[in-house]
Design a protein that fits this description.
Number of domains: 1
Largest sheet: 5 strands, antiparallel
Shape: globular
Radius of gyration: 19 Å
Strand order of the largest sheet: 1-2-3-4-5
Oligomer: single chain
Number of strands: 5
Distance between the termini: 73 Å
């Protein structure tokens, strides 16, 4: 997709996506999952979007990205929505329309309708993010191994 075509979707996407992410962010904070950064613009190689992350340096796996994906680079027409909250496969959350025969939104109105469906499910997304972040914490703890910092070992003489 040419840059000017992508930009025609990007402006309405950002305007509609920001309040959705703000509501999700506030819901997560109310669940005690903060502190979380402010919403920021994301600029990846072929996709751009909005997102936020934990401000806790020990919680680097805690983030939410809502990305407007360029369909041409992913094998479909138009643009798609990708919402992720971790680097693991379960971190790919539901993106309206992405699991249909017509993956890409080909009009701005179609994109805005998909974002409206996303907005309707904020409470469900907050639960899904909370579960995934808990799973991320468990995976990271398992990878780190047992904490032996407080154990004392007797030495045989």
């Amino acid at each position: 997709m040419r840059n000017e075509e992508y930009e025609a979707f990007e402006r309405p996407f950002r305007e509609a996506a920001r309040p959705i992410l703000e509501a999700l962010r506030e819901s997560l904070i109310s669940k005690g999952l903060g502190p979380l950064s402010e919403i920021e613009v994301l600029d990846f190689d072929i996709d751009r979007g909005l997102g936020f992350a934990s401000e806790d340096p020990d919680k680097t796996g805690h983030f939410v990205h809502l990305v407007l994906a360029d369909g041409e680079d992913r094998g479909y027409e138009g643009v798609g929505l990708l919402m992720t909250c971790s680097v693991y496969p379960n971190g790919q959350l539901w993106a309206p329309g992405n699991y249909s025969f017509k993956v890409g939104a080909i009009t701005v109105d179609d994109l805005l309708a998909r974002l409206a469906r996303l907005a309707d499910g904020i409470a469900d997304y907050a639960i899904a993010v909370e579960r995934e972040w808990h799973a991320v914490d468990q995976r990271e703890a398992e990878e780190a191994g047992p904490d032996t910092s407080g154990q004392h070992f007797a030495v045989n003489s």
